[in-house]
Design a protein that fits this description.
Oligomer: heterodimer
Number of strands of chain B: 28
Mean pLDDT of chain A: 90
Strand content of chain B: 25-35%
Radius of gyration of chain A: 19 Å
Shape of chain B: globular
Number of helices of chain A: 8
CATH architecture of the largest domain in chain B: 3-Layer(aba) Sandwich
CATH superfamily of the largest domain in chain B: P-loop containing nucleotide triphosphate hydrolases
CATH topology of the largest domain in chain B: Rossmann fold
Distance between the termini of chain B: 81 Å
Largest interface: A-B, 64 and 75 residues
Radius of gyration of chain B: 30 Å
Helix content of chain A: 25-40%
Distance between the termini of chain A: 37 Å
Chain lengths: 303, 621
């Protein structure tokens, strides 16, 4: 039996996301889908393929590569693009690379600013994209809870939370002036649990890092950091240990804390999450500089 | 967290809205709901405790309001500015909560939250009773089609949990809300800060026999009457991967669709049958309201985005004029006659308010005469569209009867609209065919028709220059005429004053007259202050490309005041004339005028020569 007949809640979320994706494709001249390789991106891409079937995906995917992603993420990205036959564009801020910006040498905040926020702005300008889909959800973080589904950006990609357009029904105001752009969030109304339920219902492939497995980690500033390659300098007394861990969210490996977990299957993950006492982004070191830091980053153009 | 059972998947999400006056405790209530359910994550709780110490208003206690007030600035001011959406689940149901602000100036956000909600929790402070905002919120909830209301009478601790206070508020609200057609009003006494009747019945309100708030929200069934309605699907996207597949993608707005069903396409009126219905999982036997589908038809007919597929025996009306309720959301007031963009059922087109019938006093629902709507005001208006569209009354369908109005310059969403009914069927309108064409008249004239539109401040020199230009053209054998304040305001437009709305109508009529005169083949010189960009653009768009030449007579305001040829500035500055451009009404400088005349440096005669030279350059004659 088709799961949609008994899970009306998830079926409604799926239909709404498809409507949003179609609307953006119909309204904008040159949209692009931000593909961050994580579970939300996997779900968003899956929905986009459904939205336009039997046509091909009518826009490219864009991955902003900081060069510090987990190796398994990059392998998964390339394999996914090949398997689905989609146009994947990869952009790296080469200027940042030349200047030696990295999470190790420059710290989380400068690395994020240069290699993610600035890189994204450069990539959007270069591609002359007037709309960019993102997999962000409103349940992730407080400032996201107030963001529109169609969220306006200025010519310099800035977000002004104080003058957002009211968003009524599913009637989206998509008007832009020259040089302005829109961020579009089809998963706005999804929760983390919805994403996993959907991954399970539709058997969507996700990066293996989400599943528990023994991995080499060091404990640093209260987080478990996986030693993914030899670029992570070990501090005095640090010795990588094999631990049974998995990742709840994926980013740059030196900035993404693993969680101790035995959950090696989708069912186990969903069960674990229903018991969880911490939020999803708790493992993301870049969010914790100070309260309100996500809002600051978003105003500057971060997703 | 508790593990949801299978019942949470089979119930639709309950989308509800919390609203109330400032300090009624909305955010506190939601924070308390989440906290009591054990739904606040540990790291969020830690941040909340630290934020409470820094910004909190509840002393040593946790300030739950801070959990929802997401944006920095408002956290510092201690107010909720925007709509925030929260997601939570219990073993019985999933919820999306829209937290709408209580401040009067942010009522637009409440309408926004209401448009996406099925139920409203309206908070009332028991110690204060019903406030003007309570009435406003009940009215907006009703207007936006919400049929279920929880009347949450909060801070019942402040009135010593007295039943008579509760009963009085309930009676007052019920009387007021009788006109709103709510299906269910459920009053509940609460002390959100302490948790009374939030999750479990409070021992301090023994006189209350109803369910606590959470139990009610978990079990309330929202009637979805869309399923029983005739089929509607606005076409969102035409799917054409190859010559052998032509599908129409959209979301079913009402009824259901199945292969073999007859359909009519509106506004064209062509009919066909459904061949296949594709859902997200492939071909399906049937798709109901809310499903995102792609359908194919048995015959090839021309269908575009914005057309509507409908049941042929229950067609929606098609019209280019209708009556609607408007909630005005912009700091720029509504101007009847001004051209806005309207987005409805995936079509965007120009539309204008032809008549504002009345404004609604939200305190007592009185109909008040009005010439405009300011931010947060609600009115009933007649609208005229650029072309006929299919739609349903909002009362019948919250999807196909809803629209927004967009300002053409700022791109701001200025109004939410709900259609009441069509004013007349567009199918009855025919244009009189014209046999002698504009081109033929122009050929006889030996020059092209254009409108020269002189705009600028009073006293800038518009009429002086226009007169010189006309004399020069006349001498060259060009057929001209001149429209200015003197010959228009004293005749055609003598019924109009100088409010912003009347200025719009003034320019609209002048534009139409100028257009008729270009059809007669004339070069029409128009000399009007015309302070608003939107109206100048409206005239520009009446005319074919290239026939509107905007001439900006640029003069410094101080210079105009010093010159003051008619003594008008002196009187305006003394307060004797209201709505005077440059004094108490703005002048919006043209952004892309075809010609800008610099009156500070050149004489009127030189500037007139520049205008004539421009016409020669454009090969007008």
């Amino acid at each position: 039996m088709n799961w949609r007949q008994h899970n009306v809640r998830l079926a409604a979320l799926e239909a709404q996301a498809i409507e949003i994706i179609r609307e953006a494709e119909a309204e904008f001249a040159n949209p692009v889908m931000l593909y961050s390789i994580g579970k939300d991106s996997s779900v968003m891409l899956h929905l986009a393929l459904k939205a336009f079937a039997p046509s091909k995906l009518p826009f490219p995917l864009l991955h902003v590569d900081t060069t510090w992603k987990f190796r398994e993420m990059i392998a998964f990205r390339d394999e996914t693009a090949k398997r689905l036959g989609v146009d994947l564009q990869v952009y790296t801020n080469e200027d940042g690379v030349r200047r030696g910006v990295s999470p190790v040498a420059s710290g989380a905040s400068i690395h994020t600013q240069v290699m993610k926020t600035e890189a994204l702005r450069q990539a959007l300008d270069k591609g002359r994209f007037d709309a960019a889909f993102g997999g962000a959800r409103r349940d992730e973080e407080k400032s996201r809870a107030k963001e529109r589904i169609f969220s306006h950006r200025t010519q310099t990609h800035g977000w002004d939370p104080r003058s957002q357009r009211p968003e009524l029904w599913s009637v989206f105001n998509t008007c832009l002036k020259a040089g302005e752009s829109m961020r579009v969030f089809p998963l706005s109304n999804w929760t983390e649990l919805d994403v996993w339920d959907y991954v399970a219902a539709e058997a969507i492939p996700v990066v293996p890092l989400y599943f528990a497995k023994p991995r080499p980690v060091v404990e640093r500033d209260g987080a478990l950091i996986m030693v993914d390659d030899d670029r992570l300098p070990l501090r005095a007394g640090e010795q990588p240990r094999e631990m049974m861990v998995r990742f709840r969210t994926l980013g740059c490996y030196p900035l993404t804390g693993a969680i101790r977990s035995e959950s090696a299957t989708l069912d186990a993950i969903v069960d674990e999450m229903r018991q969880s006492r911490t939020s999803e982004r708790q493992g993301r070191l870049i969010d914790h500089d100070e309260s309100g830091s996500m809002e600051k980053k978003k105003r500057e153009g971060y997703f | 967290m508790t593990k949801p059972s299978s019942s949470e998947t089979s119930r639709p999400v309950l989308r509800f809205l919390t609203c109330g006056s400032v300090d009624d405790g909305k955010s506190t209530l939601i924070g308390r709901l989440l906290y009591e359910q054990g739904l606040i994550f540990d790291d969020h709780m830690t941040a909340l405790q630290s934020d409470s110490r820094k910004h909190g208003t509840t002393g040593e206690d946790i300030d739950f309001a801070l959990l929802l007030d997401g944006l920095e600035a408002e956290r510092e001011q201690g107010i909720t500015i925007d709509v925030a959406y929260r997601y939570f689940a219990t073993p019985r149901r999933h919820f999306i909560v829209a937290d709408a602000p209580g401040h009067e100036q942010y009522t637009r956000n409440m309408a926004t939250g209401a448009s996406n909600s099925d139920l409203a929790v309206i908070l009332v402070d028991a110690s204060k009773g019903l406030m003007p905002q309570t009435r406003r919120h009940a009215m907006i909830a009703s207007l936006l089609g919400i049929r279920y209301v929880v009347l949450a009478i909060n801070k019942i601790d402040l009135v010593d949990f007295r039943q008579n206070v509760f009963d009085r508020v309930v009676a007052e609200f019920t009387a007021f809300a009788a006109a709103f057609g709510f299906k269910d009003i459920r009053p509940i006494p609460l002390a959100a800060r302490f948790g009374d009747n939030v999750l479990s019945p409070s021992s301090r309100t023994p006189w209350y026999g109803g369910p606590p708030l959470m139990a009610y929200l978990e079990t309330v069934e929202i009637d979805d009457d869309r399923a029983a309605q005739p089929f509607r699907m606005p076409v969102q996207w035409v799917n054409r991967p190859s010559a052998d597949f032509r599908g129409f993608a959209g979301t079913v707005a009402a009824g259901a669709v199945a292969p073999g069903d007859p359909v009519v396409v509106l506004p064209s009126g062509q009919t066909s049958r459904i061949k296949d219905v594709l859902g997200p999982q492939g071909t399906v036997e049937r798709a109901g309201a809310g499903a995102a589908v792609t359908v194919t038809l048995a015959s090839e007919i021309d269908i575009a985005r914005g057309d509507m597929l409908a049941a042929p025996d229950h067609r929606p009306p098609v019209a280019d004029q209708f009556a609607a309720h408007l909630v005005w959301m912009s700091s720029e007031p509504l101007l009847p006659g001004r051209s806005y963009l309207m987005k409805i059922n995936h079509v965007t087109m120009t539309a204008s308010v032809t008549e504002l019938k009345h404004r609604i006093d939200v305190e007592n629902l009185d109909k008040l005469a009005a010439k405009t709507l300011a931010m947060n005001e609600i009115g009933v208006a007649n609208l005229s569209l650029a072309r006929p569209i299919p739609f349903d009354a909002y009362a019948d369908n919250r999807t196909t009867g809803a629209f927004i109005l967009i300002d053409r310059y700022s791109n701001e969403t200025v109004a939410a609209g709900m259609i009441d009914f069509a004013l007349r069927r567009a199918t009855n309108i025919h244009y009189q065919p014209i046999t002698v064409t504009k081109a033929e008249r122009s050929r006889l004239m030996t020059h092209k028709p254009v409108v020269l539109w002189f705009t600028g401040l009073s006293g800038a020199g518009k009429s002086t220059i226009a007169n010189l230009v006309e004399a020069s053209l006349h001498a060259r054998g060009v057929h001209t005429t001149l429209l200015d304040g003197d010959n228009i305001r004293h005749g055609l437009n003598k019924d109009l004053g100088f409010t912003a709305g009347e200025r719009v109508e003034n320019i609209r009529r002048i534009g139409e007259v100028a257009k008729l005169m270009t059809e007669a083949g004339l070069v029409v010189l128009c000399s009007f202050i015309s302070p608003f960009r939107a109206e100048r653009r409206m005239v520009r768009e009446l005319l074919p490309e290239g026939e509107f030449i905007e001439v900006f007579v640029d003069a410094d305001l101080d210079a105009c005041i010093a010159r003051d040829p008619k003594g008008l500035y002196r009187r305006a500055l003394a307060g004797e004339i209201k709505n005077f451009t440059g004094v108490d009404q703005p002048y919006e400088r043209p952004e892309n005028a075809e010609l800008t005349l610099d009156t500070a440096h050149d004489s009127a005669a030189t500037l007139a020569d520049q205008v004539v030279a421009e016409l020669i350059r454009r090969r007008v004659f």
